[in-house]
Automatic annotation (TrEMBL):
Signal peptide: none annotated. Binds 2 [4Fe-4S] clusters. One cluster is coordinated with 3 cysteines and an exchangeable S-adenosyl-L-methionine. It catalyses: N(6)-dimethylallyladenosine(37) in tRNA + (sulfur carrier)-SH + AH2 + 2 S-adenosyl-L-methionine = 2-methylsulfanyl-N(6)-dimethylallyladenosine(37) in tRNA + (sulfur carrier)-H + 5'-deoxyadenosine + L-methionine + A + S-adenosyl-L-homocysteine + 2 H(+). Catalyzes the methylthiolation of N6-(dimethylallyl)adenosine (i(6)A), leading to the formation of 2-methylthio-N6-(dimethylallyl)adenosine (ms(2)i(6)A) at position 37 in tRNAs that read codons beginning with uridine. Belongs to the methylthiotransferase family. MiaB subfamily. It holds the Pfam family Radical_SAM. PANTHER family: CDK5 REGULATORY SUBUNIT-ASSOCIATED PROTEIN 1 (PTHR43020), MITOCHONDRIAL TRNA METHYLTHIOTRANSFERASE CDK5RAP1 (PTHR43020:SF2). PROSITE patterns: MTTASE_N (PS51449), MTTASE_RADICAL (PS01278), RADICAL_SAM (PS51918), TRAM (PS50926). It comes from the Bacteria. Residues 5-121 form the MTTase N-terminal domain. Its cofactor is [4Fe-4S] cluster. This is tRNA-2-methylthio-N(6)-dimethylallyladenosine synthase.
Length: 439
């Protein structure tokens, strides 16, 4: 289209950033920017950054270097940085990168249209103030009919937990819940345009509503969402193990739309390490919650996160992590070698496990997880699973969908069934997916 301005967003990190990028794209339609996947055609390039892993800032500066020449060659090109690195670095980014136009923090998405218009007039700005009300959470992607069979919906943001290794409370601010009326309105509107599945997002969804007396509890929110006609599935992430209540566990038994999968990061299997991480639960308490979840829903699949090589982690501590994995029998696990995040309380602890030792532990842990994942996938061979068909598979000659337990399934069928729920007989299990045929 002539005269249309093109927006390219590069998204790093978690699902919250993916969701924020969708909102940014929607917001900037009001300044006549439309998404492109071709960075060379873009009039506005946004880096939506993550600072959870080490060296995130260097990565962003490295990326910005790449765009220096493009800025010289294309006078009207605008360059912006958002997300967690923007929140941390603020004005410093503008000072260090003279060809950068805008910096916006995790609470400032709603200011973007105004900031972009200012940048088009030649103004450079950084906005990284924390805003302590929930209005900013009410931005949501609209009007993209047919695109979102499965959608993210933000229900809360921020975190009050201060796990000792984690930067999130510093870059996302304190917990704030979105009004349930807004959450419901967004989901109703998404369902009206074809959405079948929502994933409710928040740093710690289980503490939804706890800080506001006139808001519903998280289990009640799930019940209200469940009552929305046309919606087939509800997922949510992330759940802090210490905040998962019996009422929430009961939702897995009582609400068929709540999928049989939960991401429940343990982070470590040893009480000593869990205490140093400030996680707020013991190994036994974690396992009790897992047992209660399995009792509520016998086929529930549990995924998690683990950190190896946290300061002071002994070989015995690490073996407790491995034994926890065997007890829980995770379907999948995100695993990381510990790295210091400046500004967190763990940064004061001696990072005393060598890089080689961390890597060695990580390899052992990942080898165990590969066995557990394959064991989990093989269980499904010969069974018929309900699959939400999301689109063509990566190879393109098959379709791809997800089971209730969030297993990816490839199978051959006509594209006309994209967006529907179908029964698929599983014929083979691989490490990362299942192969099936229409039942
Ligand atoms: S619960 Fe802990 S790990 Fe999760 S976001 Fe909050 S501080 Fe970070």
């Amino acid at each position: 289209m002539d005269g249309q301005k093109l927006l390219y967003i590069e998204t790093f990190g978690c699902q919250m950033n993916v969701s924020d990028s969708e909102k940014i794209a929607t917001l900037l339609q009001e300044c006549d920017y439309h998404p492109t996947s071709d960075v060379s055609r873009a009039n506005l390039i946004i880096l939506n950054t993550c600072s959870v892993r080490a060296k995130a800032e260097q990565k962003v500066y490295h990326y910005l270097d790449r765009f220096k020449r493009a800025k010289r060659e294309k006078q009207q090109l605008l360059l912006a940085v958002g997300g967690c690195v923007a929140q941390q670095e603020g004005e410093r980014l503008l000072e260090r990168v003279p060809w950068l136009d805008l910096v916006f923090g995790t609470h400032n998405l709603h200011l973007l249209p105004e900031m972009v218009r200012a940048a088009e007039r030649g103004e450079r700005r950084a906005e990284v103030r924390f805003i302590d009300n929930d209005i900013r959470l009410d931005l949501f992607p609209r009007g993209d009919e047919g695109r979102g069979i499965s959608r993210f919906v933000t229900v809360m943001q921020g975190c009050d937990n201060f796990c000792s290794y984690c930067i999130v409370p510093y870059v996302r601010g304190r917990e704030i819940s979105r009004r349930s009326t807004e959450v419901i309105a967004e989901i109703r509107s998404a369902v009206a345009t074809g959405t079948k599945e929502v994933t409710l997002l928040g740093q710690n969804v289980n503490s939804y509503g706890l800080k506001s007396q006139d808001e519903v509890s998280y289990p009640q929110l799930l019940r209200e969402i469940s009552a929305i006609d046309g919606l087939e599935r509800i997922r949510f992430t992330t759940s802090h193990p210490k905040d998962i209540s019996p009422e929430l566990i009961a939702c897995f038994a009582e609400l068929p739309k709540v999928c049989g999968h939960i991401h429940l990061p343990a982070q470590a299997g040893s009480d000593r390490v869990l205490a140093r991480m400030n996680r707020g639960y013991t190994r036994a308490q974690y396992l009790e919650k897992v047992a209660a979840l399995k009792a509520a829903r016998s086929d529930i699949l549990i995924t998690g996160d683990m950190i190896v090589g946290f300061p002071g982690e002994t070989e015995d501590d690490f073996c407790e992590t491995l034994s926890l994995m065997e007890e829980v029998r995770y379907a999948d696990l995100f695993s990381f070698a510990y790295s210091v995040r400046p500004g967190t309380s763990a940064a004061a602890l001696a990072d005393d496990i060598s890089r080689i030792e961390k890597q060695e532990r990580l390899s052992r842990l990942q080898a165990l997880q590969r066995t557990l994942t394959l064991e989990c996938n093989r269980r499904f061979v010969g069974t018929v699973l309900r699959v939400l068909v999301e689109g063509p598979s990566k190879r393109g000659d098959q379709l791809f969908g997800r089971t209730d337990g969030n297993r990816g399934v490839n199978f051959t069928a006509d594209r006309s069934i994209i967006g529907s729920m179908v029964d698929v007989r599983i014929v083979r299990a691989f490490q990362n997916s299942l192969l099936g045929e229409l039942s």
